[in-house]
């Protein structure tokens, strides 16, 4: 079974592009994931994991996530090989994220939430309700 769940911080904003043939959205970013501090070696305390998202998930990540945001994701590990113009083979291992989530509350600059904050809260509530349905076995 190839399942990955990660929580970490974006090292830069999501890079959103579109494929040339089908104009499908593809987002890429790096997630800094803290290691267990009891097992730290050589002073390194985080792993930097390349992440790829597709379609609506990529567009959502690009719109709502930015450098420094703490997020959670679920997906799978994929490997691929590509060749550059000098015929050198490059091997890539990355996580393809199927689902992405906010992992910490957004700090509010004002006492009353703005339109974006209300949309975000509604989205988070919908995700929580869907998660509850999945966990309880109910179907919509």
TrEMBL record:
GO molecular function term, any single one: single-stranded DNA binding
State the coiled-coil residue ranges: none
GO biological process annotation, one example = DNA replication
Q: Does the keyword Ion transport apply?
A: no
Q: Name one GO cellular component term.
A: nucleoid
What's in the keyword line of the UniProt record? DNA-binding
SUPFAM superfamilies with a match to the protein in the record = Nucleic acid-binding proteins
What InterPro entries is this protein classified in? NA-bd_OB-fold (IPR012340), Primosome_PriB/ssb (IPR000424), ssDNA-bd (IPR011344)
Where is the secretion signal located? none
Q: PANTHER family recorded for this chain?
A: SINGLE-STRANDED DNA-BINDING PROTEIN (PTHR10302:SF27)
Quaternary structure, from the entry = Homotetramer.
**HAMAP family (alphabetical):** SSB
Protein name as annotated:
Single-stranded DNA-binding protein
In its UniProt entry, the species of origin is given as: Ruminiclostridium cellulolyticum (strain ATCC 35319 / DSM 5812 / JCM 6584 / H10)
Question: What phylogenetic lineage does the species belong to?
Answer: Bacteria, Bacillati, Bacillota, Clostridia, Eubacteriales
